[in-house]
Amino acid sequence: MPELPEVETLRRALDRELAGRTLQSVTIYEPRLLRNASAKEFKRALVGHALRSVDRRAKFLLFDFGRHTAVLHLRMTGWPTLNSVKTPRFVFQFDQEKTLYFSDRRRLATLHLLPSADTHKLPPLSELGLEPFQPSYTLENFLTLLQTDQEIKRLLLDQRKIAGVGNIYACEALFAGKIHPQRSAKSLSQSEAKKLFVQIKKISARAIAEQGTSVSTYRLLTGESGNFQNFLLVYDREGEPCVQCKTAIERITQGGRGTYFCPKCQQRV
Ligand SMILES: [Zn+2]
Questions:
Q1: C-alpha of residue 246 to centroid of ligand 1, in Å
Q2: Residue 191: inside a domain
Q3: What is the number of alpha carbons within 13 Å of residue 239 lying toward its C-beta?
Q4: Which one of the listed residues 43, 107, 154, 257 is annotated catalytic?
Q5: What DSSP state is assigned to residue 109?
Q6: Which domain holds residue 145?
Q7: pLDDT value at position 269?
Q8: I need a surface site. Which of 40, 42, 110, 146 has the fewest CB within 10 A?
Q9: What is the pLDDT of residues 174-190, one digit of tens each?
Q10: pLDDT range class, residue 76, cuts 50, 70, 90
Q11: What CATH code is carried by the domain that includes residue 232?
Q12: Ligand 1: centre distance to CA 153 (Å)
């Protein structure tokens, strides 16, 4: 699933290619994408308006058309591209022959139409928690969040608590912080919590610089792969030796998601 670095990579490319262009037409092939407006309402609100910018909040892409904003969540397999795709879920036709195609094999993506002035006050964006690179992502706020018995890995994946972090970067940040993924959040010492707080940001920034991680379906706007899969230290490396201590990386399941960790570097205590 695309996480903050992948969505940010796509956002930058979309903004560069499409901002300033006027939306000429919209075709929705998958009506269940739309969560709070009909295809007719969606078109009426956006067609004929210029795209001001493409922004991002956590894993959501925000297409700002002035009065209204289209909020797209890629979920598992959603992928926007300027190259034509076989089965598009929607197509946005812009002026000067730029066309945005949206492919989504699993059909779990969502599209909301929101008034731009209140985007952050309405669901789904109003339900998001602290996000790396936003001013509210402070150590103090992070420490407050950790005052719970919830397993630390599950807390990191809870978008209402920490927004933008997904399975890949949660595993990598916990490894960097030498923290066992099943420990309760409040069992972390002040210095462990600080390390985790810093690593989440640091690893996300490096992943953005490498244009994201292509381990499953994520691709750049052009169809090429990102590069951060070459820098993963634990994620998707079950049975391979730990880069620190050579112990085999283990995989367990937490909340239905695979967690990768080093049993020696990340002791349960
Ligand atoms: Zn190790």
A1: 6
A2: yes
A3: 0
A4: 257
A5: -
A6: 139-261
A7: 78
A8: 40
A9: 999 999 999 999 999 99
A10: very high
A11: 1.10.8.50
A12: 18
